[in-house]
Amino acid sequence: MTDLNYILETILLLALPLVPVAVGIMLRRKFRPAAAAGGAAAEPGAKARKIGRLTGNILLWGGILGILFMIVVLLNFKGKI
Amino acid sequence: MRPMRLFPAVLLLALAGSCAFALEPVQWKDKDYAAQFKYFQEGGVYAEDTWAALSPEAQGTELRNAKDPAAGRQEEIRGYYASVMARWDSGKLRDYAAQTREEDVNIVRIWLGDARAAAMEKKLRVTRAMLDKAASDGLRDSDQAALSPYLTRQAISDLSGYKAASGLRRQAETASGNHEIPKAALTDTVQKVSGSLSQQTGNSVSKFFDGSNAKGDISDPVHLQGKYEIPKAVANSMAGGITGPVSKRVSGNVSGILNTRNAPAAAALKSAPPSPLTGSGLPPKDNKSASWTSDAYGYTVTANGQTQTFRDGKKAEAAIRQLPDGSVSKIILYGHGSPGMQTVGPNVYDAESTAALLKGKMAKGGVIQYSGCNTASIGGPSLNPAVGLSIVARRLLYFSLPYFQDRADGVPADQAKQQWEKGWNADLARDTSLGVKGAIVCGYRTFGLVPGRFPVVARLMGTQEATTPGYVAGKKACYQDGKEVPAP
Lengths: 81, 488
Description:
The complex is a heterodimer of chains A (81) and B (488). Chain A has 81 residues and is an all-alpha fold. Chain A is built from 3 helices and no strands. The two termini of chain A are 34 Å apart. Chain B has 3 domains: 26-158, no CATH class; 162-257, no CATH class; 298-377 and 426-485, no CATH class. Chain B is α+β, with helices and mostly antiparallel strands. The interface between A and B is medium-sized, with 13 and 14 residues.
């Protein structure tokens, strides 16, 4: 059981940086930019959409950078780089 | 008006042009500054890349500072080379063959070029080979001819006579078995004799010293006949340190063995290798790295109101040990940390070794600062994301990986757990504070990010080899006698 506990913990910890990536993707989908309608007036809620999409982008790319950072830290710890 | 407008415009252009000209960088090994660049090269202060990284102003300053010392050094090396390439007598032959090092040749290469360094190398190679050959096989006419550009006639004839002396010694070896003399008596004799070396005794004396060791003791008793005088010079050279095979004797101290009347005293050094650079006119070597990444670490010790910084651990520890007790008001150990330990360059410190180093040296309320990641425990619950990141990294790096490694190596699960559960959250700062009573010991609960250590930034800031961290982004924790206290 001890081993299983720590395997689960390790998986959980390794999965943590994926959480912001998943949330970011979700937000980006939810706040997709509206199809450009030629000459149409600005759609209501366009500003909120923009903010939501920006947040999604930050979480997505921050998460990806976090994963890359952890890989670098791990490789450094193992003496590979 | 037009000419009046044109004049300032031309003047401005000319000034700008002259400024640009003045600030033009000097190429590495520029012929106009040959001596200075050789000086830098010998001192090891700059290489091509580190030189190019300097600003044109800094280059100009360095060149000006090095001008006079470089000219002096050049004269010194020229003089040295002239004496190396002059024909040697026996004494100089012995000295140069024994004393000249590869570094001396390299110095000549830097200052006088490859051709002269090669000529010097060739001379040393030939003369050393001939010394060995003179000891083992004797010199032939062709060998003597090969030596003629390098040695005086007298030195060549001395070297040729060496074979005869060693022949006599071999005779003595075979004849000595029948004779006996008390070992102690002969040793006393060797120590008391005085006189000068004559041709006859020089040839014969080797009989008495076969088998002698460094103290002049004789392992094989031999018979001492009254007609031989033992000259002091030979006794000294034979009994005082010649124990190895003949070839070694030759390279180290040949004049004592050569049966020559003119061999100079063995103690006089004739080769006079170039003195080491004193560093005048050279910039300090610290912080001259042109690396894009950082290799910053060091010790910063504040004692009696004075602050000293070190990169060399041995020097730092020696300096700390010399300080009076209770004098250190602050010490920063700057390097890389992990739970329970901190490195400063190649040196590793844990709570015990730090306490041993600083015990008694800290002033009351003095601060020991570990500037390394994870040098304190995680502490209580926190919303600080940096603490979260540190927890994740510690659990993975300092717990999971070693734990799984142990399990793979067959260590029982409970034992592996016990081992690593303690390790990941070790508190170096608290443990040290228990060992250095009264001092405030600080570490970081998180990663301690130093901006000056980031790649590229390090180069822009010139902090590649900084000894003090400056700003550290991290959550600091301080302890005094094992209890957490506010950061001073």
